[in-house]
From TrEMBL:
GO molecular function: transmembrane transporter activity
Name this polypeptide is given: Major facilitator superfamily (MFS) profile domain-containing protein
Membrane topology: Multi-pass membrane protein
Any one GO cellular component localisation term in the record: membrane
InterPro entries cross-referenced by the UniProt entry: MFS (IPR011701), MFS_dom (IPR020846), MFS_trans_sf (IPR036259), MFS_Vesicular_Transporter (IPR050930), Tet-R_TetA/multi-R_MdtG-like (IPR001958)
Superkingdom, natural source: Eukaryota
Family matches, as PANTHER family: GH10249P
Record-stated family: Belongs to the major facilitator superfamily. Vesicular transporter family.
Localization, UniProt: Membrane
Residues of the Major facilitator superfamily (MFS) profile domain: 27-186
Gene3D superfamilies, sorted: MFS general substrate transporter like domains
Membrane-crossing segments per the record: 28-48, 68-92, 104-128, 134-153, 160-183
Amino acid sequence: MRLISHTISRQNEVPKRPKCLELRSSRWFITTVVAVATAIDISMYGMISPVTPTALRDRASLPDGQIQAWTSALLSLFAAALLVTSPIIGYVADRTESRRRPYVFGLFELAAATGLLCAGTHLGLWIVGRLCQGAAASVVWVVGAALLVDTVGKDGLVESIGYVSMAPSLGTVAGPLLGGVLYENG
């Protein structure tokens, strides 16, 4: 009897609203999160480019004759992973009940892949890191776009896409600049 009364009383409780729900659901917040994540993704791509040849020589111990080929290959691996995983990510994201989990997973995957490159002392780790970065980028871009469509609404969608479209330009400018600073000081 006690179990039944406890169950009935729990059914009458009003569920707690998540903290900061209005803020996290607002158009400007979602647009900002997607734009910042996109800018960070692109800036990491640009940041790695000037550092890669030196890192392959000094950290992965590649001979000078192989550095240019592997630098190009690593850039291509990122693009290949992005190309292959983007439609898969779109398919999976359309079948999940929330965009939040795949999006947060993609952000953590991007951070982990970048950490793998920072710690990588073997060419194999660099290959895995770049493949993971490309896959993570597909999550950030594809799920981010779906998140905008789902939450911003038809009236504000084009404006939000406009702001998010500025992010790659910002990342393209900031990435090589930060990569050069890292190269000189790191």
